[in-house]
Amino acid sequence: MEKESGKITIDQVAKALGVSKTTVSRAISGKGRIGEATRRRVLEYIEENDYKPSIIARGLAQSKTFNICVLLPENYHLSELSFFQKAMVGIQQYAEQKDYDILLCIGTEEDNGSLERIVRNQKVDGVILLRTYRKDQAVELLQKKRIPFVAVGDTDYPGVYQVNHDQRAACRELTEKLLSGHGPSIVLLGGRDSLVITWNRLEGFQDAYRACGLDLPESQIYLNLESREAVEQAADEALEQKCRVLLCMDDVICSWLLRKLQREHLQIPRDVRVASFYNSWVLENTDPAITAIAFDARELGEAACRKLFCLMEQEEAPERTLLPYQILLREST
Amino acid sequence: MEKESGKITIDQVAKALGVSKTTVSRAISGKGRIGEATRRRVLEYIEENDYKPSIIARGLAQSKTFNICVLLPENYHLSELSFFQKAMVGIQQYAEQKDYDILLCIGTEEDNGSLERIVRNQKVDGVILLRTYRKDQAVELLQKKRIPFVAVGDTDYPGVYQVNHDQRAACRELTEKLLSGHGPSIVLLGGRDSLVITWNRLEGFQDAYRACGLDLPESQIYLNLESREAVEQAADEALEQKCRVLLCMDDVICSWLLRKLQREHLQIPRDVRVASFYNSWVLENTDPAITAIAFDARELGEAACRKLFCLMEQEEAPERTLLPYQILLREST
DNA sequence: CTGAAAGCGCTTACAG
DNA sequence: CTGAAAGCGCTTACAG
Questions:
Q1: How far is CA B72 from CA A100, A204, B103, in A?
Q2: Fewest CB within 10 A of the end CB: N or C in chain A?
Q3: Residue A36: which nucleotide is closest by CA–C1'?
Q4: pTM given for the model
Q5: CB A224 within 8 A of CB A233
Q6: How far apart (Å, rounded) are the C-alpha atoms in residues A24 and A8?
Q7: How many CB atoms sit inside 10 A of residue B22's CB?
């Protein structure tokens, strides 16, 4: 009863049916003229005998791989990771409809060896970058090789197709709300400044001050807070300056900050107000709830994937897409 | 100066050199006799002209895909996610050496549609499961289709190749240490009981009691704590029972517990002692440091991948591999 | 040591 | 509407 696991080929189908491979191929692909009766006969046989064409062989014939590569950063904050994972789900869901699969590639800012390998081996038709850097090796490689790709996140490189949440507008809007509610002394606690996203947010922060006609002293901006100690020191300095509103660029920074404040017995929002980005699990159960900007990562991944397919199919697509965000005002501010 | 992006084929190489494709192929693969001079000439030309054979075409000819599939659970706790990601890095590093790539597949306990698709499309030579369930659709599918695969984590299914940290022994050892230090009333706070890993740990817990000749009342075991509320309720009950040692099956449960204890102004380790698994980022910066069992996820991924290659290459491999763990005794106990 | 030829499992002009 | 043949870019018996 058991069949040899799906090893049946188009040739066998053709012979069994007494038609040519061409006919079988046409019945499946729907391309080219074919008699309605024949088609149905073929399709029926295929269904019953559980024939599935080899995508690999089809790929060879059509010079396609039916794979896209997703470049996942090897280094990340935990809050980013779940963001990436969700984006991946979005990508995968879209790609699946097109019968494409995802080739996973892991790289760092400095080392894109695996991406290079995959590209050289010609295993993918396109690439999605889950993170961008101000100087981005992956972007340079892909542009040089003329491989279609879409970046999640902003870039300054010209001619790069990208999909992004409107980080700058989001940060600006939130900052404006904070400014109007609590006055001008907001301290920004930011992440690595080699990431484009850090700059987007910083610019939004500055935009808000400018729009309100306010001065923004250097001393209210902290970047590159990559460790708990760095965050705590920045917080100490901010509090000494009498800043009573702290805006964190990501939830990990925020969670470090919260612990620090708790240890100092500072009450939120009474003594200090806090806001953050992401709205990830990290801050899910804080008390009080933290004001944050939420982004839908799954949707982002899907949008990136959709755009990539436009590129691969030579359809037109806007170079840049900005997705909406959501500001969740909560008790912490 | 710019070359057409790597589109050069073996045919062109052969012609340019005035030899046959066969020869070129042999020079590259190292299989079959070939003159040292010829080989060098070919290799040199290839190097200079940046020729890379198409892996896809090679695959077709050899009936291989040079891909392995990694099945990533769609639902997870945050602590698991970084564990999965690290395992993936290990897998990827090993696969890369073999010039294999990773096809990412996302599935849930109930829905393995993408895995089925990939299998039907014959896009992979083998599969790694990053999680196992007591009743596991993926295992059943792969066994039926006779696709080589390795499970990360234990299964009760017979004939499944698996790699695992010794969860049971780890839990037993930690429990014994706790028993000898603080007496018999330890409460176990556990996760979803459809996961095999949950059972492994539970068994280890029970082993320890048995080994010490102690009775283990049902009331000291809580499973399926999937929400903060569930954890808090379990904690309340445990404290009422006068249990003063809490062993968490994962770091997320533990972090929920810690917040709860903090709100109740209970001091660790003075009033309550706490231990956990994973040693992930979630508990990285707690004060006091939490006793935990640490597992090396990257190593686990690598071991799983190594075993998978044994299977694919028809080499012998033990059906089951248990990796060591590390118990980190810290201030919390 | 080297090459012509068949084959991997498909697709796609080209003829009929 | 249907099929024979060439082709996608490799590998691998088989001959020489």
A1: 17, 36, 10
A2: N
A3: D1
A4: 0.88
A5: no
A6: 13
A7: 12
